[in-house]
C-alpha cells in the first residue's frame, strides 16, 4: 500500500515537471523558429549568390528541424525514436552542407583544387614540371601527411575532406534506419550500454565517424582559413560545430550518467532531458545565426551579377525661361531598370532543392566509388594470388605414359614384349620436354 502511494505521488510529480518542461521548451522553440525562418526568408528574398546561399539555408534550417523534432519528442515520448532518427539524418546533411559552403566561398571545387595545389607547391618549393619519381616520393604517404602536414597534400586534401563528410552522412543514415529496424525487434535499447543491445555498438561507430568528419573539416579549415578570412569563418565554424558536436556528446553523456546512476533511470527521463536541452540550445543557436550567417552581404548586387537590364527613354515637353522669355523645350529622360537575379522565392527554393540535391547525389556516388576502389583492388589481388598458387601447382605436375612395344620372337617362336615408361616433368626453369 505504501509503495502504491509512493508511486502515485512520484507520477504526479513527474507529470507536473513534464508539463512545466514542455511549456518552457515551447517558448524557446517559438523563438528559435521565428528567428531562423525569418533569416531563411531574408536569404531567399536576396538570393543573389546561389552557390553559397543554398548551403547557408541548409545549415540554418537545422535549427527549425532540431527544435521541432525535440519539442514533439518531449511532448510525446512515444515518438522520440522517430524524431531522433530524423534529427540525426539532417545533422549529417547539415555537416556536409557546411563543408560545401566553405568550398563555395573559395570559388567552387575547381578553384579549391587550384588553391590547394598552389599551397602545396609553395610549401614543398617544387616547380610546375617535376619528374615522375619526385612526384611519387612526395605523395607516397598522403594519409600520414594529412595528420601532420595537410598543407602539402594539395588536391588530395580536398578529396579526403569530401570523403570524410560524405561517409558520415551515409553512415548516419544507415545507422538511423538500422536503429528503426532494431527497435521493431526490441533489441535497440536506446541509451542502454548493454552488450545484447545495438545502441552501444552504433554509438561507437557513429562517434568515430563523426569525429573523423569533423577532423577532416578542421584540417581543411586550417589550410584555407587565410583565404576564408573575408567571411569570418571562425565564428561560423564554432557556431556550427557547437550544435553538431555538443548535441551528440550531450546525448552520450546523459546516457552514461543514467547508466552510472548519477541521473534518475526513470523511463523517458533520458530522452526527455536531451530534448529539453536541445530546445533551449536551438534558441541560442538561432540568435547566433542571425549575426554569423547574416543575409546583409547578399542584399547588394555583386559585380557582374546583374540580372535583366532594360533601358527606355521618356520624352516630356516643357518650357525654359531664357532672357525673360519662355521657350518650348523637350526633356528626354533615360531610365535604366536592373532586375536583381534570384529574388523570386519559388526560384530560390527550386534551386536549393534541385541543384543542391543533384550536388549531394553526385558526391555520394563519388564517395561510394572511392570506398569500393580499395575493395575491388583487394579482391583482384586475392584472385591473382589464387591463380598464381594454382598455376604453380600445375607447373610441377608430372605426366607418365606407359608404352608396350614388341621386341621380336624368341627361338621357340613366341613373341616377347618390352614395357617402356616415359615420364614427363614440367618445371618453370625448363619449359621444354626432355
Low-confidence stretches: 1-11, 130-139, 430-434
What strand line-up does the widest sheet have? 1-2
| Distance, first to last CA | 102 Å
Profile the largest sheet.
2 strands, antiparallel
Succession of helices and strands: HHHHHHHHHHHEEHEE
Structural class: mainly alpha
What's the rounded overall pLDDT mean? 75
Total beta-strand segments: 4
Percent strand equals: 5-15%
- What would the principal axes of the Cα set say about the shape? globular
Q: Roughly how many Å is the radius of gyration?
A: 36 Å
Tally of alpha and pi helices: 12
Question: How much helix, percentage-wise, in residues?
Answer: 55-70%
Q: How is this structure best described in words?
A:
The radius of gyration is 36 Å and the shape is globular. It has twelve helices and four strands, in the order H-H-H-H-H-H-H-H-H-H-H-E-E-H-E-E. The longest helix is centred in the last third of the chain and has 51 residues, at 345-395. By secondary structure, it is mostly helical. 65% of the residues lie in helices and 12% in strands. Strands 1-2 form a two-stranded antiparallel sheet. The chain has a two-stranded antiparallel ribbon with strand order 3-4.
Amino acid at each position: 500500500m505504501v509503495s502504491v502511494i509512493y508511486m502515485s505521488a512520484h507520477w504526479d510529480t513527474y507529470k507536473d515537471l513534464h508539463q512545466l518542461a514542455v511549456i518552457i521548451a515551447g517558448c524557446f522553440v517559438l523563438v528559435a523558429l521565428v528567428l531562423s525562418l525569418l533569416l531563411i526568408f531574408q536569404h531567399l528574398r536576396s538570393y543573389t549568390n546561389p552557390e553559397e546561399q543554398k548551403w547557408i539555408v541548409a545549415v540554418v534550417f537545422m535549427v527549425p528541424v532540431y527544435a521541432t523534432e525535440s519539442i514533439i519528442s518531449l511532448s510525446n515520448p512515444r515518438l522520440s525514436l522517430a524524431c531522433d532518427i530524423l534529427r540525426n539524418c539532417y545533422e549529417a546533411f547539415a555537416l556536409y552542407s557546411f563543408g560545401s559552403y566553405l568550398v563555395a566561398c573559395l570559388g567552387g571545387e575547381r578553384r579549391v583544387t587550384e588553391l590547394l595545389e598552389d599551397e602545396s607547391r609553395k610549401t614543398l618549393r617544387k616547380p610546375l614540371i617535376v619528374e615522375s619519381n619526385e612526384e611519387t616520393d612526395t605523395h607516397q604517404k598522403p594519409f600520414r601527411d594529412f595528420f601532420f602536414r595537410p598543407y602539402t597534400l594539395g588536391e588530395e586534401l580536398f578529396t579526403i575532406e569530401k570523403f570524410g563528410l560524405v561517409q558520415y552522412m551515409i553512415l548516419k543514415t544507415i545507422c538511423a534506419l538500422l536503429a528503426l529496424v532494431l527497435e521493431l525487434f526490441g533489441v535497440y535499447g536506446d541509451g542502454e550500454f548493454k552488450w545484447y543491445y545495438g545502441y552501444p555498438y552504433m554509438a561507437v561507430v557513429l562517434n568515430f565517424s563523426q569525429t573523423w568528419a569533423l577532423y577532416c573539416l578542421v584540417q581543411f579549415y586550417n589550410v584555407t582559413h587565410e583565404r576564408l578570412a573575408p567571411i569570418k569563418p571562425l565564428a561560423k565554424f564554432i557556431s556550427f560545430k557547437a550544435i553538431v558536436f555538443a548535441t551528440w556528446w550531450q546525448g552520450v553523456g546523459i546516457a552514461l550518467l543514467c547508466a552510472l546512476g548519477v541521473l534518475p533511470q526513470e523511463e523517458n527521463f533520458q530522452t526527455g532531458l536531451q530534448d529539453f536541452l536541445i530546445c533551449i540550445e536551438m534558441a541560442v543557436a538561432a540568435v547566433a545565426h542571425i549575426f554569423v550567417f547574416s543575409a546583409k552581404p547578399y542584399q547588394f548586387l555583386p559585380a557582374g551579377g546583374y540580372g535583366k537590364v532594360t533601358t527606355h527613354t521618356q520624352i516630356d515637353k516643357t518650357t525654359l525661361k531664357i532672357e525673360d522669355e519662355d521657350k518650348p523645350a523637350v526633356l528626354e529622360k533615360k531610365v535604366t531598370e536592373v532586375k536583381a537575379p534570384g529574388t523570386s522565392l519559388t526560384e530560390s527554393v527550386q534551386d536549393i532543392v534541385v541543384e543542391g540535391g543533384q550536388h549531394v547525389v553526385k558526391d555520394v556516388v563519388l564517395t561510394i566509388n572511392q570506398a569500393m576502389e580499395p575493395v575491388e583492388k583487394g579482391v583482384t589481388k586475392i584472385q591473382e594470388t589464387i591463380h598464381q598458387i594454382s598455376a604453380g601447382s600445375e607447373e610441377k605436375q608430372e605426366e607418365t605414359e606407359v608404352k608396350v612395344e614388341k621386341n621380336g620372337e624368341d627361338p621357340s617362336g613366341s613373341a616377347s614384349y618390352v614395357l617402356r615408361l616415359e615420364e614427363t616433368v614440367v618445371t618453370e626453369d625448363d619449359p621444354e620436354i626432355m
